[in-house]
Amino acid sequence: MDNQYSARNRQPKKKSAARLLVFLVLVAAIITLAVFSLGQYTAVQALQNNLQELEDKLDRVEEEKNRLEKQYDELYEENEELREENKMMRSETIIEHGDRETKKVAITIDDGGSEAINNLTLDYLKEYNVRATLFPTGQNVESYPETWQRAVEEGHELGNHSYSHPFLSNLSEEQVHQELSGWQEAVEEAVGGSYHTPFFRPPYGDGFFSGQAHHRERLQPIVAEKGMFPVMWDVELVYALRHDTYSAARITEHVLNNARGGSIVLLHFTEADIEALPRIIEGLRERGLEPCSLRELLLAEPHH
Ligand SMILES: [Zn+2]
């Protein structure tokens, strides 16, 4: 009986030991699993961190790549512009117009002896959002430095038109040098820093007309030595309308009838020419032509 009792009694003891064992195994399993999961979790976390780091690095590489590409584009454009400039400086031909395939028409305005008209011109160009090439004489730059500083600030380019507007064919080489440098100094004084223009517009066109080859051979190397090339025109008014009424209406009509893609229009800072300027701009645009500066017409156009 005793035996039976204790046997009966021991059996539950055995059972509870087995349960404990199962329990322990389970706990061990859970702990193992937990440790393993934690390990996995940490590993995943580490991988994610690595991934993040790589992504950051990739972003930086991408940024660097974009920066270099932009720099390359800028240098390419600059280079293209310099190649064009160089080609024109060495060319024997006189530039009277640009590429006829384009829709661009360069607006050039010469002399600039009246401050009121100079400022009115800048107002019109601003209103119509046109960049033009202005050829003041050095003397007029000295007289109205604020006007020409404003012109540069508003995106126009200044071209060399000599210091005192002489007939260059009458001058010695030394005097021609002085005329060109005098203009340069006046402009640098006005804009308060160095200024480079590749464009030279001879006063009256003198020395550079076809038929003046012997003067041109003497003058052009001096202009080229100063880093410029002479730019004439294919549409002008002074000679064209000399037997005609010189009114804003007639000026507008003449320019619009004669300008085409690639044209270089020569205007002067005179009351009549500038009175005609808004209609000239509107009329060119109505004909699908775009008024612009010489740089935009003759050199590779910067995109920025
Ligand atoms: Zn002039």
Please give a quick description of this structure:
It is built from 9 helices and 7 strands. With 304 residues, it is of the alpha/beta class. Zinc ion is lined by residues 110-111, 161, 165, 203.
What does this structure look like?
This protein is of the alpha/beta class and about 300 residues long. The protein has helices spanning about 1-90, 115-125, 140-145, 145-155, 175-190, 215-225, 250-260, 270-285, 295-300, and strands at about 105-110, 135, 155-160, 200, 230, 265-270, 290. The strands form two sheets. Strands 1, 2, 3, 6 and 7 form a five-stranded parallel sheet that branches. The chain has two domains: about 1-90; about 95-300, Glycoside hydrolase/deacetylase (TIM Barrel, Alpha-Beta Barrel). The radius of gyration is 40 Å and the shape is elongated. Helix 4 crosses helix 5 (about 175-190). It is built from nine helices and seven strands. The mean pLDDT is about 90. The structure holds zinc ion.
